[in-house]
Design brief:
The protein is mainly alpha-helical. 82% of the residues lie in helices and 0% in strands.
Length: 85
Amino acid sequence: MLGDLGSKTNPENTQRIFFMWEGYFFTVAGLICFFEGLPYLASPDALKSALRRIIDMPSGQLRLIGGGLMVLGLLLVYWGRHHGG
């Protein structure tokens, strides 16, 4: 997709690449905000209960869950960029 912009040494093409990535950044940031806000809107009481359970979890378990979610996220990004079109 980005390879069809021609020479990378051309300042005009470099600017176009920057603005393409900037658009992706804002799209992803917007989707993150949307999905992060959804539980607060849909079920705030269930969210409070879940957060109480998270506070009681050991730090090691939270790190393991966080690391697993990061790996899953990177795999989804890789899959989407290489197989999603």
